[in-house]
Amino acid sequence: MAFSKLFRKKTVQDILKQVEKNETDGHNALGKHLTARDLTAFGIAAIVGAGIFSTIGKASADGGPAVIFLFLFTAIACSFAAFAYAEFASMVPVSGSAYTYSYVAFGEIIAWIIGWALIMEYAIGNITVAISWSDYFTGLLESGGIRLPQWVQMDYLTASNGFKDATALMQGGKSFDNLSSGLQAAHTAWTTSPVIGSFHFVADLPALLIIILITALVYRGMKESRNASNLMVIIKLCIVLLVIAVGVFYVDTAHWDPFAPNGVSGVLKGVSAVFFAYIGFDAISTTAEECKDPQRDLPRGMMWAIIICTILYIAIALVLTGMVNYNELNVGDPLAFVFDKLDLKWMSGIIAVSAVVAMASVLLVFQMGQPRIWMSMSRDGLLPKKFSTVHPKFKTPSFATIVTGFVVAVPALFLNLTMVTDLCSIGTLFAFVLVCAGVLVLQNKPNIPRGKFKTPYVNSKYIMPILIAIGCIYSFGYNQKATMDFLTNETQIKSSADIITGLDKEHYTKVSDYLIGLDVKNKTNETPDLELLLSQYQQDDVEYAAVIKGLPIEDSHKYESGFDLFKHKIPMWIFFIVLIGLTVWSYKDNLSLIPLLGLICCLYMMAELSVWNWIYFTIWLLIGLIIYFSFSRKNSKLNT
Question: Where exactly are the transmembrane stretches of this chain (predicted)?
Answer without folding.
Answer: 39-60, 66-86, 199-219, 231-251, 263-281, 302-326, 346-366, 394-414, 420-442, 462-478, 570-586, 591-607, 613-631
